[in-house]
Amino acid sequence: MGGLTQDPAFLATTFVVIDFEATTPTGYPAQPIEVAALALRYEKSAWTVVGRSASLIRPPAFAPVTPAVTAQTGLTPEQVKQAPDPAEALGALDRRFTADKRYLLVAQHAATEANLIHNQRKHCPALARVDLLDTIPLAKHLVPGLANYKLDTLLAHFAITQPADRHRACADVEVTAQVFFRLISAADEDVQLSDLAALVKIAGRTAKCNMPTQGGLFDIQPSDGESAYEPV
After folding, report:
1. Most buried in the list 11, 80, 213, 216, measured by CB within 10 Å?
2. Average pLDDT for residues 160-172, to the nearest whole number?
């Protein structure tokens, strides 16, 4: 293998693949109704799962689960009615991020997850300060020429079986992780991606909480008051 997976910074990083399902109420930011995360380390030339987390999330009254959301995800209002509220669900996830470890979030279309996390930052302050890697620009660099870079397209390209419960957070995290593995394998053979810093330069997204007031290198749009949820 190449330089990337031998880079000390890469080996010291815990990569957390994360996915949300959400409602998109008119006039409000998207509101999470499910979250899943899969924590990974690259150890002894192989990926190791070092943690998992998943929870339904009860949305506020102004953001009900609509028929369109149910059609997309399979989630119903009844399923989330008794779920933990955002403070409980995201607080439990947040406590998994310890100060003595280096993390990067991994997401398909990372702006979606970044905005959801930022808008919930009072419930997950540690999570909200973790920067992200976006599989889309990484795939564009490593696999040029695809018709598009949606998750389903990447699954087909890499011959990864599409899960029956696609558009549920746990299923999407699992297959996004499989795409990430394929991309890192390809990156390991790319001379432009010799270390973690080079990977971040191509696919990194700065968490909004880490941006200077005047804006950061990787601006994530739209603004807090706009819906930024885009099912992928």
Report:
1. 80
2. 96
